[in-house]
Design goal:
- The complex is a heterodimer of chains A (293) and B (295).
- With 293 residues, chain A is mostly helical.
- Chain A has one domain: MetI-like fold, CATH 1.10.3720.
- Helix content of chain A is 72%, strand content 1%.
- A two-stranded antiparallel sheet of chain A has the order 1-2.
- In chain A, helix 5 crosses helix 8.
- Chain A is globular.
- Chain B folds into 2 domains: 72 residues, no CATH class; 206 residues, MetI-like (MetI-like fold, Orthogonal Bundle).
- The longest helix of chain B has 36 residues.
- The chains are: A mainly alpha (293), B mainly alpha (295).
- At the A-B interface, helix 1, helix 2, helix 4, helix 5 and helix 6 of A face helix 1, helix 2, helix 5, helix 6 and helix 7 of B.
Chain lengths: 293, 295
């Protein structure tokens, strides 16, 4: 048995195809993007080495930093909204009739393509015929806003469909985690006279702290990578007011044909995502691991 | 678990009658909040369905959530035959199927080797696959574009299939891992004793035994592939090779003024996902929970 199961040829046969694929399509490109960042390159003619010039320009590029700021704003808002999802999940995981159906309904938007969602919300926000302004006019609001072409409103307006899209995803994860808590622990606390708030804060949340950490990483890193929805709805506009890191990279490379600079942005995006993952893990690390039973 | 009720009920010590009244009101509020949230999640989609059945005049003059007297089903017929939507749809179907089959097969191989076979580099390889989940697609886009250009794969659906497979392998392996670890090994051990080869055992015993988790992983893969946008948008330039997500984006861009046509196109693009959801929502919930490390 041991001999059969450590046959090198068979192991290679089973692992190598997938391994080579991710090495070629995921890992080689992330190294190359850092390398291309050292080049001046229009994507067609030959590259020329310019050292750290792209990275130096990046550090002074106001438009880039404004896209970084927008990305982090989305990350912050997404993290804060986790508290709301947790509250809904706590209620849902209590004795609520139809909880199973409700959490499935919440999930539907998350299954649809960001492009379809973006197109739908473009229509919802349509200044004259959109659902939102039609509703606002019907309750007597005059001068209904032009949501996506107002530099002050556009980020908020983009965040609503993001909330709408991902709410069900986080509720599903929290709900599953809460349902996993042994009933005996909650029961014991109740007998000791703990009220529901105390049970939620002192018993349930600490027990699912690992899951909460994962969702914070997901919310932050997910926000830093937002692209599809913003690309379709505003394309970073008006006037850069909703540009995020990924869309800025895309514009510089595939529209501006500055592939060297685009690569530098892509590399920066990678580093920021990795740092964010590592940093959140570090910040939320706790010494005492919790035993379930 | 009575968290729900008591979250809004008065503290212990109040009179029982009062408490039960408070509990009822508390319950009422909670149900109201939860069902309002469900309605908010559904309304945009209901509105989409309704305007896909209207013409512009009806969109502009009727209230948003009113159906016209005669639903314009012909909107769907028109967009299906015009604007290449049929082509995009078929492209999406076949790219999705090929990528899902390839991903599941490769991921099953790897998961099997990781959970059942003995080799030194196992932790490293597993780590490489798991880390793959955190890498932003956008950081790979320019080098991938260049790579595919060099090997003559730009404007080829193969580049799309390979990219989908590579980027979905990590999450697929993650979903499969838990199931493989829990799977009893007795059958496999007995088969080896009887002189069964590893390949034969994998295809005849292991794959059939993991069918239920394969279905879960396949659905999650299908949803990701069906919805993917940036790879197709970047690597494919010929219109007749594009998938529905990108096709819809182009189509809607050209017909910005015809609301019925846009609505019908969007409905066609999300309908397959909605149908899968109606039939297999439990599997979807299971798959998302198992692979929740991907955002």
């Amino acid at each position: 048995m041991d001999k059969v199961m450590s046959n090198k040829k068979i192991i290679a046969l089973y692992v190598l195809p997938a391994l080579l694929l991710i090495l070629t399509i995921i890992y080689t490109p992330i190294v190359l993007t850092g390398y291309y960042g050292l080049m001046e390159w229009d994507g067609v003619s030959a590259m020329s080495f310019i050292g750290l010039e792209n990275y130096a320009t990046l550090m002074k590029d106001g438009a880039f930093w404004s896209s970084v700021y927008h990305s982090f704003l989305f990350a912050l808002l997404s993290t804060v909204s986790l508290a709301v999802y947790m509250l809904i999940s706590l209620i849902l995981a209590g004795s609520i009739k139809g909880a199973g159906l409700l959490r499935k309904i919440y999930l539907i938007p998350m299954l649809l393509s960001s492009v379809a969602i973006a197109q739908l919300w473009l229509k919802i926000y349509h200044p004259t015929n959109g659902m939102l302004n039609a509703f606002l006019s019907s309750i007597g609001v005059e001068n209904t806003p032009a949501w996506l072409s107002d530099t002050k409103l556009v980020l908020g307006a983009l965040f609503v469909p993001i909330l709408w899209q991902y709410a069900g995803f986080y509720i599903l994860i929290y709900y599953a985690a809460l349902k996993n808590i042994p009933a005996s622990l909650v029961e014991a606390a109740r007998i000791d006279g703990a009220n529901p708030w105390q049970i939620a804060l002192k018993i349930k949340l600490p027990l699912i702290s690992e899951v909460i950490k994962v969702t914070i990483v997901l919310a932050v890193v997910g926000s830093l990578k937002y692209f599809d929805l913003i690309y379709v709805m505003t394309d970073g506009g008006p006037n850069g007011a909703s540009e995020v890191m990924a869309s800025y990279m895309y514009h510089k490379a595939f529209r501006g044909f500055d592939f060297g600079y685009g690569s530098a942005i892509g590399f920066f995006l990678l580093i920021i995502c990795m740092l964010a993952t590592w940093g959140i893990r570090k910040l939320t690390a706790s010494d005492d691991t919790i035993q379930y039973s | 678990m009575k968290t729900a009720t008591s979250a809004a009920s008065p503290t212990a010590g109040t009179e029982p009658a009062l408490r039960s009244a408070g509990t009822k009101i508390g319950y009422g509020i909670l149900y109201f909040v939860l069902y309002s949230a469900a309605i908010i999640q559904m309304i945009p989609l209901v509105w989409l369905l309704f305007f896909s059945l209207k013409n512009n005049q009806e969109v502009f003059n009727l209230p948003p959530l009113a159906l016209p007297k005669h639903p314009k089903w012909e909107n769907y017929q028109n967009v299906w035959s015009q604007g290449n939507i049929e082509r995009y749809f078929l492209n999406s179907v076949w790219i999705t199927i090929i990528a899902v089959v390839l991903t599941i097969l490769l991921a099953s191989f790897v998961t099997y080797a990781i959970t059942r076979m003995r080799w030194k580099l196992r932790p490293l390889v597993l780590g490489l696959f798991m880390t793959g989940m955190m890498i932003p697609v956008h950081s790979t886009l320019i080098p991938l574009f260049n790579l595919f250009q060099k090997v003559g794969l730009t404007d080829s659906q193969l580049s799309i299939i390979l990219s989908y497979t590579a980027f979905n392998l990590p999450i697929t392996i993650m979903i499969l891992l838990g199931f493989y670890y829990a799977l009893p090994r007795e059958v496999e051990e007995a088969a080896i004793m009887d002189g069964c080869t590893v390949n034969r055992m994998f295809f005849r015993i292991v794959l059939p035994m993991t069918l239920s988790v394969i279905v879960t992983a396949a659905i999650i893969n299908m949803i990701y592939n069906w919805n993917e946008f940036i790879f197709v948008n970047t690597f494919i330039s010929s219109d007749n090779l594009k998938t529905l997500t990108v096709g819809v984006q182009n189509f809607v861009g050209q017909y910005t003024t015809d609301w019925g046509a846009i609505g019908a196109t969007l409905m066609i693009s999300i309908l397959p996902i909605l149908i899968v959801f109606l039939l297999l929502s439990n599997k979807i919930v299971e798959g998302i929970a198992a692979g929740s490390v991907k955002g």
